[in-house]
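One example copied in:
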Amino acid sequence: MRITAAVLREQGKPLTIEPLELHAPGAGEVLVEVKAAGVCHSDLHPARGDWPVPLPMVLGHEGAGVVRAVGAGVTRVAAGDIVVFCWAPPCGVCPPCRSGHAVLCDRLDKTTYKHRLPSKTPRLHSGGDAVTAFLGTACFAEHAVIAEEGAIKVPEGVAFDVLATLGCAVVTGVGAVMNAAKVPAGATVAVIGAGGVGLNVVQGAALSGSARVIAVDRQQAPLDLARAFGATDALLAPEKTADAVRELTAGRGADYVFDTVGSPSTIVDAVASARKGGTIVVTGLSRMDGVAPLPAFPFVMQEKRLLGSVYGSGNPAKDIPKLAELHLAGKLKLRELVTRTYPLSGINDAFSALERADGARGVIVF
């Protein structure tokens, strides 16, 4: 079928809106009509050249839509189902999957992180040449073919523009709190970065019953949103983040510190902002050559824990529907996350707003 998509042909250059050929889904694959797609830093990184990727490529990994056709053997979804994209579809049988760590599935190294489907067959083409699907999802397009395990059925009743955010920002942020850190009620939490993921760390901490949630950002607008999501304190570009956090915590530091930026400097700040015996969780992804210089002696002497958390550290197939139910029950904010919407032709404007840190999520609406 003929579709329209946003194509990255040269890193550091604007994406182009082009017609492409999308082949029908094969065995174990699903054709989804994309209704909305969130614009995430993980799309911006390959677009501006922070990560090496095979070109040409269709970006987009945080999406929602309607199943229009299924390939042979598909049983999880059917035509007409409303689904959220899962960019890390697990195999379900490898050791990490069997031990409950679906986001660490061994198959992802051969599929998602090589930007291919489990079948390894490209479905996107331009003039006979294959076009790579970012993370095997490629939802900056009118339609996408994805792995069956990557189409997560969700209940009806949630608007598509807000539903799309469940596919990455929400499950990553809330999951980091509940699955990776397991933040208990009464804890003091600091969150570095109040973008799409950071806001969901904030509301995850609030849902967990944290006594204090400190949001840190370089822009005022995201901090204003953070307060609406449950932050009790907001720090605007403090000269020294750790000193500012300690000042709010009687000199101790936070019990849990979440770094949703992931740059070398913010990781150092996050470790320094945690109390003795505190936990630091890094969800942000920086350049692939980024290295954080951590002072080893105080890290050991103060028994701090440094954790990485990818995609919420849980099982997206179960977590995403639960989050949708929480939203329908009025316990999880999603509408407030979507502060900007664009047509597909506005994708480069969406990237510019993301680089400016305009706050929350920009979403492509089809």
User: Anything to note?
Assistant: The longest strand covers residues 29-39.
